Amino acid sequence: MVTPPLVAPPVPVLLPPNQPADRFYAGVAGLAAFRGVPGAGTHVPEDWVASTTPLFGEPERGLARLLDGRLLRDALDADAVGWFGPAHVEAYGSAPEVLVKLLDAGERLPVHVHPDVPFALRHLACPHGKTEAWVALAPARVHLGFVRDVPADELARWVRGQDAAAMLAAMHALDLAAGDTVLVPAGLPHAIGAGALVVELQEPTDLSVLLERDGFGVDGAADGHLGLGHGLALGAVDRRGWSAADVGALRTARADDVGPLLPGAERWFRAERHRGPGRWDAGYAVLVVVAGAGTLTAADGTTTPLAAGQTWLVPHAAGVCRVAGADLEVLRCRPPLP
């Protein structure tokens, strides 16, 4: 049997759940409820939506597949212009340049940090760091950035002794409402609190340095330092004290906002919130249907029903699209500007 070519269709593509099992922190119930499917296991807290990024150190786990079982990465490579459009391909090739996740924190995540581009290039030969952003779907407390300058030896002592209380006491705490957004620059230490359900946009890597490991499913000697050793890995941490105003500026507490979110993040990724009817320009996008129901009509007139909890991939080939639905709420996650 001849395998059909992986040509970008002129309509949205429904994406099945892509949930790597046995993660190092707990979570499943919130994500299962959002998706409207039964949860399996206790440590399945993430859905890697439209992912072409594998888990760190693994060849395929984390990569998204189409409904027919083939890797999305192969489809994008086979018809990059159809999926992304010529401007994106000229700038980035067939790489989406963004990773979107649904994240369900069944417990507080450990304090951790993601390297920036200079660190990733120098020590990991990786062209991306991991700046990320959160769009909260449920209220949650998060910890973000140090309140004072933390000397390198003090940070090393905390990590060596696994003094999570000292780490958290030295960090800003923010209480998020559903709909709030937070930009998290690479290098900034952070921890997402128990009960959080977020849509996370990030640079397309799985680079994390765990400052906190005790009580989580992590081998402290082998994991959590990107294979660099703890001493070198701690060089990825922004140890500067951030003012409350500076940390507050990373948060947009306007849940009623529609249109572009995350101002200033366009060099990493773009996010838009849409409610009710609207018209979209042509372009590759990952859709998360947050609430309600409605339809998306592609340029060729094909109408696709949308329902809460679904995730869709919209190719550039779908052209200018129209969405409709009085109670529909959609997050449209997009690559950086080319």
UniProtKB/TrEMBL annotation:
Key words of the record: Isomerase, Metal-binding, Zinc
Keyword Metal-binding: yes
GO molecular function: isomerase activity
Listed transmembrane segments: none
Isomerase in keyword set: yes
Superkingdom per UniProt: Bacteria
Protein's name in the database: Mannose-6-phosphate isomerase
Source species of the chain: Cellulomonas oligotrophica
